[in-house]
Amino acid sequence: MTDPLRLGWEEWVALPDLGLPALKAKVDTGAKTSALHAFEIETFGPAAKPKVRFLMYPVPNRPELAIACSAPVIDRREVTSSNGETEQRYVIETRMKMGEQEWPVELTLTDRGSMQYRMLLGRQGIPEDAVVAPQESFCQPELDYEAYTTTKVRQVAPSRSLRIAVLSREPNTYSTKRLVEEGEKRGHTIEVIDTLRCYMTLNAMAPDIHYDGTRLPRYDAVIPRVGASITPYGTAIVRQFETIGTWVLNGSSGITASRDKLHAHQVLARQKIGMPVTAFASSPKDTANLMNIVGSAPLIVKLLESTQGRGVVLAETKKAAESVISAFRGLRANFLVQQFVKEANGEDIRCIVMGGRVEAAIKRSAAPGEFRSNLHMGGSASPVKITKVERETAVRAAKAFNLGLAGVDLLRSDDGPKVLEVNSSPGLEGAETASGKNLCGALYDMIEKRVRPAPVKRRSGSKKQDSSPG
Asked: Cα–chain-centroid distance for residue 50?
C-alpha cells in the first residue's frame, strides 16, 4: 500500500498540457475551486464545443515571458474570491503533475497578476486521500523556473489548439479549403478573413484591426493569401497584424517585394542568385540597347504585375520584340525584357519551400504550342527529382524575401538553375496532386513548432519572488 500524497501549504506543480513545466501553487483547503492566472482570455471555435485561449505569466517579475495556452471549456461559473468579489470565470480541465503523481484538475481562469502564486489549488483539486500539512511547505519535489530558460520549453510544448486566420478573398479555392480542412483536422480553429472587409485603427498605443464592425481577436498565426490585384491594401492589413505582434507566415515586406518583378529581380541579384538576364528601362529611346543587353531574339517581355503567366509575351524575332515593347510603352505599362532560356524546352520546376526547406518539387510542362508552363495556362505537372544545387537555390530565393511559404520557379539552363519568380501565395493544388504530398500538413507542422513558447535568457535574481499576496 502506497503512502498518501502529502502536501504543504505551497507546492511546485506542472501543467504539461498547457505548456507550463513549473508553477508555484498555493494550497488552500479553505477555497473550493482552483484558479489559474490568465489574461487576454478569448473563446473560439464552434459554439457546441468552445475552446478558450489565454496568456499567462508563469514567473512573477518576468513580464517578458508570456505563455499562450488553450483548452476546451467545460463550464462557466460564478466564483466568489476571498475578498468577497464575484466574477464569471471560464473553467477548464487539465492534467496536473506533482512529483511522480498526476491527476486531472478543474481550473477557473482569472487574472492573478498581482498575486505571488500564479495558481491556487482548492480542495476540489486535491485527491481525497491526500494529507495537507498547513504548517509545512514543498513536501513534494521542487521544480525550478529555469525550465523556461532552456530549449526544453519548446521541446515539451503541447500540441495545443490554435486560432489561425487565413487572409483570403476566395474561400472556395482549393488552397483555402485545404488549409481549413487540414487545420480543423488537427483541432485548430481556422477562420477565413476577407482581406478587403478588414479595416484598421492606426493608434500609437492601441492599434487594432476590425472586421465587419467587430474588432478581430488575437490570433496565434496569420496565413496571408493576398491576391495580386489587392497587393497594396492586402499588405497594409498584413503589416497591421505585424504591428500588433501577431506572427505572420509571410511578412508584408516579402509579399510586396516578390510581387514587384523589378524589385524581386533586384533582391535576387543582390543575393547573387542565378536568374535569366533581365533589363528594364523607362525611355523609349533605349529600346535597342535594352534588347542588346538581354541578347538576341527570341526574348521574353513581361509586365511587372503579371500573374499566372498573363502579361508575358514571347517575341521570337527582333522585329516582334520591338513591336511588343512599343505597344507596352504606348500603354504606359511597366515591363521587363528577359533572356529566353531555350534549353528549358517549355518546362520549369516549381519548388514549394516551407520554413527553409523544399517540401515538394514538380515539373511543369507547357501545353503544345505554348511557351508558358503555368498550370492556369493549360500546362501539366509531374513529380521531379531536383539536384542539390536546385534545392539550395530555391531555399536561398525564399530566404531572400523572408517568406515562410514560397513557390520558387526555376529554369534548368546550361549554366545552372535560374530563378524565374518567387511566389508568396503559391497555389497548392498542382503541387499536392503531382507530388502526392500533404503540403498543408507540413505547413501546420511548421506553424505549430513556430508558435510554441520561446525560451528566455537567464538573468540574475530570476528566482526572486515578489512580496504580493497569494
From this structure: 23
Which triple of cell numbers denotes residue 262?
523589378
What confidence tens digit (pLDDT) does each residue in 82-131 have? 677 788 999 999 999 998 899 999 999 999 888 889 999 999 999 988 99
Question: Residues 382-401, buried b or exposed e (16+ Cβ, 10 A)?
Answer: eebebeeebbebbbbbbebb
Average pLDDT of the chain is 85
At residue 287, the 3 state secondary structure works out as: helix
Nearest to 428 by CA among 52, 166, 79: 166
Q: Are 53 and 44 in contact (CB under 8 A)?
A: yes
| pTM assigned to the model | 0.74
* Phi, psi of 299, rounded to the nearest 5 degrees: -130, 155
CB 93 within 8 A of CB 74: yes
HEC assignment per residue over 159-210: CCCCEEEEECCCCCCHHHHHHHHHHHHCCCEEEEECHHHEEEECCCCCCEEE
CB 132 within 8 A of CB 30: no
Judge contact between 82 and 31, C-beta under 8 A. yes
User: Helices (DSSP H) in 284-438: which residue ranges?
Assistant: 287-294, 318-330, 388-400, 429-435
Q: How far is the C-alpha of 10 from the C-alpha of 26, rounded, in Å?
A: 5
Nearest to 397 by CA among 405, 106, 429, 277: 405
Q: How far apart are CA 413 and CA 277, in angstroms?
A: 12
Q: Of the given ranges (194-198, 225-229, 286-290, 344-348), which has the lowest mean pLDDT?
A: 286-290
Q: Which of 36, 18, 31, 32 is nearest to 110 (CA)?
A: 36
Q: What domains can be seen in the chain, in order of their start residue?
A: 6-155 (2.40.70.10), 163-257 (3.40.50.20), 277-340 (3.30.1490.20)
- Dihedral angle sign, alpha carbons of residues 141, 142, 144, 145: positive
* H, E, C per residue of 240-269: HHHHCCCCECECHHHHHHHHCHHHHHHHHH
Q: Measured between alpha carbons, how far is 322 from 327 in angstroms, rounded to an integer?
A: 9
210-232: average pLDDT: 91
The confidence score (pLDDT) of residue 285 equals 61
- How far apart CA 202 and CA 204 sit, in angstroms, is 7
